User: Fold this.
Amino acid sequence: MMLLNPGPVNVSERVRQALTRPDICHRESDFAELQQGIQAKLLKAFVPGAESEYAAILITGSGTAAVESALMSSIPHGKRALIINNGVYGERMSQMVGLHRLGVSELKHEWTERPDPERLRLALRQHPEVHAVGMVHHETTTGLLNPGKAIAEVVDGLNRVFILDAVSALAGESIDIAGSKIYMVAGTAGKCIQGFPGVSFVLVRKGFLERMRAYPKRSLYLHLTHYVDDQGRATVPFTPAVQLYYAFDEALSELLEEGVAKRIQRYKKMAQLIRERMAKIGIKPVLQPDRQSNSITAYYLPEGVAYPTLHDRLRAMGYVIYAGQGNLENKIFRIANMGAVTEAQFIAFLDAFEQIVGGHP
Assistant:
């Protein structure tokens, strides 16, 4: 089955075979070596040249676990967070801080609009109680790419902490984490890194990590400094998904062998292939080209074609697409081009799609 949804993704046979490696105990030195190898590869891939300035914290859980752990671990007593919300996952971040009553009024935007850095600057000046700003880099609700660098500059310029949900962006989009002084970046194995879902991580600037040790613990499982203390002693506080770590390690090796920049270009090329073919048969994209990410494209449903029908007919041919969310659920569909999928496979999918919709706009 070819997965054209934004995670989980198709993985290589090499990554799949990593699941069959020998069983080990997570309290033994072999697991410590595995974990330390993963951490080193994450830093090499995503903060090249600044590896000594960041720590990579591994969590058994989905990307949402990484995002929530970053948010909940980063707010000291008496401070608040501000969330930039222009999609379902920005809304999820708002819900996380809302559960603990740690947020101020979110900066809401239309789901097809990028956030305005100057509006954020004004909001931060009006809210001195805001300590952290959270934003989704690639909002897969519509495939919108938010301006990570511009927002990071505003946040850093006003001495606040920027938390970036890069779950669907790392290895798919260019992000200068260290150069942009981004304090915390959440990611996961099962998207553009091309591993399996179930392992996530947070990259944390070490100077901020030391400050976080004095912050209140709002979760036992997700408090980040708990993991750092234990990982510093080559152990983990809770039982990890060992076999998934094996596969994640292999997926990171593949990424480094391909090169992060080359992976990004591969995704960009496949996205362009999809967009050009869809344009030829009159399928209308939701976003303007300059707002689209490299790894997902949202389209309006062709007139007279219901999503369940389109989905089911494609699935019968071996292709899984993705529905819209929220108020777009019955209006759009999404095609992701993440994962270990070849150009020939994408062409075959596009042939099948054109056969089903018949080319009508």
